[in-house]
Amino acid sequence: MNLHSIILLRHEILLTVAAVGVLFADVFVPREKKHNMITVSLIVFTLVTLLGFIPAQGGVLFGGSYQSSHMTDFMKDILNIAVLLIFLQSTGYLSKPENSWKITEFFVILMFVLIGMDFMISAGDFVIFYVGLETASLPLAGLAAYDRYKSKSAEAGVKLILLSAMSSAVMLFGLSLIYASTGSIYFSDILPKIKATPLIILGFIFFLSGMGFKLSVVPFHLWTADVYEGAPINITAFLSVVSKGAAAFILIIILFTVFKNISREWEWILYALVITTITIGNLFALRQDNIKRFLAFSSITQVGFLLLGFMGNNELGLTSVVYFMLIYVFTNLTAFGVVEAIYNASNVETISGYKGLYKTNPLLSLAMMLALFSLGGIPPLAGFFGKFFLFTAAASRGYYILVVIAALNATISLYYYLRVVKAMFIDKSDNPVAKFRSTWPMRISLIISSIGIIYVGFASNIFEFIYSLAKGLL
Amino acid sequence: MANFSYTIYILLVPLLIFAIVGIWGGKWKPIISGLIGTFGIAFILVLSYYAAYQYFFVVNHVGHYKQIVAMNFLWLPFNKILNVHMGILLDPISAMMLIVVPTISLMSHWYSLGYMKGERGFARYYAFLSLFTFSMLGLVLSTDILQMFIFYELVGVSSYLLIGFYYQRPSAVAAAKKAFIVTRFADFGFLVGILVLVYYTHSFDFMQITDPHSPVFRTILGKAFLGYSVLAWALSLIFVGAAGKSAMFPFHIWLPDAMEGPTPVSALIHAATMVVAGVFTVARIFPIYVHYTPNVLLMIGYVGGFTSLFAALIAMTQFDIKRVLAYSTLSQIGYMMVGLGVSRYGGEEGLGYTAAMFHLFTHAMFKALLFLGAGSIIHAVHSNFMQKMGALRKYMPITHITFLVAALAISGIPPFAGFFSKDKILEAAFMHNRLLFWVEYITAGLTAFYIFRLYFKVFWWTDEPQCDCKPHESPSTMTIPLIILAILSSTVGFIPFNKFVTPDLKAFPVETDWGLVSASVAIGLLGLGFAWFLYRKENDLPDKIVNALGKLYQWTYDKFYIDEIYLFITKKILFNLVARPIAWFDRHIVDGFMVGVAIVTGKTAEKIKGFQSGHLQQYAFVFIASVLIIALTVLYFIGA
Prior knowledge:
A: 474 residues
């Protein structure tokens, strides 16, 4: 283990040190002072996030099992930012007395999950990839059941673990078929041997289904709504932003590199999945009243748009996906932050409960409006540019019909996003959410993410920057 | 090379004020919003004066100017050739506008502290004023023609908001809509013009598309569409946009109605911002006009000449003092267009351009003064009509004197500002186009007549005012801006513009044609004298003249029925032949389809609800079944 490999592994090492350090520190903190662990964890993780930004050259380790580049580093940074925002938003929830004895595990488990994701993104073979994937999935089931005395939360945990075990089995089966056909687990060895033979296609479809489960692509999405609704809001936010982001990052890397020889085949499979995902996500989101279920289906639709970028099988496609993910982090975490703040203050988590919110909590309503407009893709917010480049990527490959279908769906999605805005700003309520002050960390996180929503759309150099990274990777 | 990066604050500060006052202004005491706005603009004024000073005297040698890009960042990279920038371009005309816009804006802000006192929506008013200032500054500083278009639209929006400020009044709402729709139509021409131009030049950047030596123009000239070169089409369409904002005939109909807004807004729209946007646009791409499409430039001159005469005629018959001033603005903007239209390029040949910019500059000062003075009068009399006024000189000495200064300035009486600039426009027209010279010469006489008709009717005419009111001088927040503007109106004429603002950025010497000067002063004095003769004291001579003119007077009084023609075309022709069929199609076909889609969507959502049952076994089944279906389908197609 020389200095070079330490630098290459810096994200993973930093996180491991941080996670283990926080875990040990917890041992020495007496029971009645556990709430201090919130501050400690926040400080530690902020440091980890900041240190992650230090630029370093990419490289390969462990005989090709681990590979990092500027692009993977940037992806990890995006995930770090997202987790930091979630941590900031969780403080109010964790400060509740019933959670006081399990504060540390919340932070530590999420950091371990993040380590799994980082390894997954940097995977150079299917074993590291699979181990990373499992490290990033199993602990989440525990966190989904964090409110274990609430039946919905427990149900969410059970459903998540059972279904992800099943999807993992399907994926592993697929990977074993690919191993059987190519005789290797290394990406670089597999790449030249991939041909459109039935066995490889079958293996690929099983692999893709497993990833589709993580990304909640329709028809592999059924777990999403139940788990999102039952899990604590922070975990829902994590599942919807960080888990999806990590899965999308590694999937696009694998599709664009390992499976590029059968791109004709997977592009048509994705073609169908994009249509089902966007459309079904929209149809369900139209009718939801529970805000968490609503955001669950909205995130399914957003994943459908994200897959559109996969269709642009080139640097532009990769850039548009990473760019969209960055925007999605800010946008969705703004929405989840507001939902969390309101839930903590008043236990309201229905859209009808948001009526008249603007009168009592104008700033929160504005932040929520910003997020929903960005999700709906209204210019000049970042969400518009994100979608715009995804559409451009797909159109650059000539998938015009698909882009038209997606654009129509984007219009439909405006309806339900605006429905929430209408509830907050226009509808009157006899019993609106009372005026309250959210915690400081929550405010900081909302300010950061709101600025992100506005700034990322205007700062064209961010897109340029990601584009240069994408050129380096492909 | 001095660093001009601070100029970004000239744009950011008003935007910030707009945001702050717009969001929180309603919660504060009104006066705080007013003070934030006013001091903010004062801050910008200092910055922009400093920037203009640096540009004219420090960075460049007087008389040899360069275009300086103070700030430029890539905003939308479409592809390698075509990308949109946002930035700040400094050259003599934008530096000049940096003086004009903040000055007039500050005066309006200051004046409004008194004029708008106690109005509902005081904070909203100041927020919109800042937005307006921001839009106009962004427009004049644009580095990129698309950036200019964006700010063009912002100017349109903010004028819409301000004209419709008294939204409880139907007439204000109608005027706001009229201004917005008319200029929107013209902007459409502008946009198409931009797209055509950019399609051939492959650049949005002003530095490139206004470079007359650029080889692209030679190649474009060869391309023709319907008998004209595409360049001429593009530039004509861009002029359509400019004509809309500058209210040139036949787009002038929005401007007189725009006085439904508060009077300081009229001052801002008429003097410094919206209407000069068109003139500025033509000046901005002037090198292309003059080198490659002189015919289009000539057309611009004729449109300007016609508008100036036409509007001056209407102004002579109106009784609403703001309407007189509105038509006088049309007429003066026409002058500027004539100046540009008769200008050539290089050395003294560029006199018309210089004169037009000079007139823009002086006009901004005295027109703002006229409007703010009118506001002060209306404030005192509570009426817009001159029949209600008279003898106000006894009650409002400051307003009276400052108004007189402005009237002398617009009439072209030396040494007031308007004389110098108008004389130069006449001189340029005399050199290059005699027809336009005579049109403008006559208009100069009419100008002096109508403005002094207004002056005498308001301040003299009777012994006592004809209203049931007690006129009084306005508070000092209103009179101090008047005094400042009066000082400016009587001094700015002495600025040697030929050293600073020229089409080729190099100074040129001017010789004064004393014959022409005497002639132009003479016609001004003639108009003034005639007005003095008719309106100095109450008498029935004017009515007799009106009766003698009969129909001719009526036509002019009714503004040559242009509004009616518009109404006829829109209501009778467009509405029946185009709008009704479209409405039918929309209601029955489009809506029908959409309702159908909504019903189907709702039904489908209801049907597929069963999938989301919550049963784990079912979820697992759907998952596995989907995987198998996809696999079988794909394998089937690969096999086949």
